[in-house]
Amino acid sequence: MSTQTSELLAAAAPRTVDVVRGVSDDQLDLPTPCSDYLVRDLLNHLFQVVVNFQDLAEKRQVEWAEKPDHLGDGWRDRFEVETGRLVTAWSDPSTLEGVSPGMGMPQPVIGGMALLDLTVHGWDLAVATGQEYHPVPEVVARLHELVEQLGPTARKMGVFADPLPTPTPNLLPNPTPNLPPNLAHDLAHLLTQTGRTPTWPKTP
């Protein structure tokens, strides 16, 4: 069984898993485009996302206040395992039915939020640690729709910063030397709509 959500997660997951595997121990205290997070903080947050959204697929309550440290022995392998479980968790069509009891939003939106975090934080970690990031075009297209839908509420809640101007050719995301121009532009637009500077750490 599969759903559109699980298929998109399955497409996006390997890109982010590769980035996580590429983070070295001496990079854990580097800054990231998420100003409140160092690399280690963002890794722990992303770990929490892939674990908690497994429960959200089953319409179970989750705890966001607790901030466990996931970066123990074998954390890179464990991240890959948990990400695989995330994909599996959203593969049953029943996961997309109804409203999330804990989040108060339709289940397809909840699944999309997992996809958004996996993709955008994959880019965050890549630029913070000097790696390339190659998103899946279909994922970026789906996330444009989601960010447009969630943007006003997410900005009020402080989840997104204010959007930046529409990207121009000199505002393409870093590091994307091998991305087709259209995909680079689409990724840049997605990043600016979440309040990120695509050329981070450089200013536009």
Please characterize this protein's 3D structure.
The chain has 204 residues and is mainly α. It has one domain (4-193): Four Helix Bundle (Hemerythrin (Met), subunit A), CATH 1.20.120.450. Helices cover 52% and strands 0% of the residues. The protein has six helices and no strands. The chain has helices spanning 4-21, 39-57, 75-89, 107-128, 137-156, 181-193. Helix 1 (4-21) packs parallel to helix 4. The longest helix is centred in the middle third of the chain and has 22 residues, at 107-128. It is globular, with a radius of gyration of 16 Å. The mean pLDDT is 90.
Please name the defining characteristics of this protein.
204 residues; mainly alpha; Four Helix Bundle (Hemerythrin (Met), subunit A); 52% helix; globular
| Named CATH topology | Four Helix Bundle (Hemerythrin (Met), subunit A)
Number of contiguous helices: 6
User: Poorly predicted ranges (pLDDT <50, ≥5 residues)?
Assistant: none
Q: Which band does the percent of strand residues land in? A: under 5%
State the CATH architecture. Up-down Bundle
Q: Tell me about the largest β-sheet.
A: none
Shape: globular
Q: Which class of secondary structure composition applies to the elements?
A: mainly alpha
List the helices and strands and how they pair.
Blueprint: H1 4-21, H2 39-57, H3 75-89, H4 107-128, H5 137-156, H6 181-193
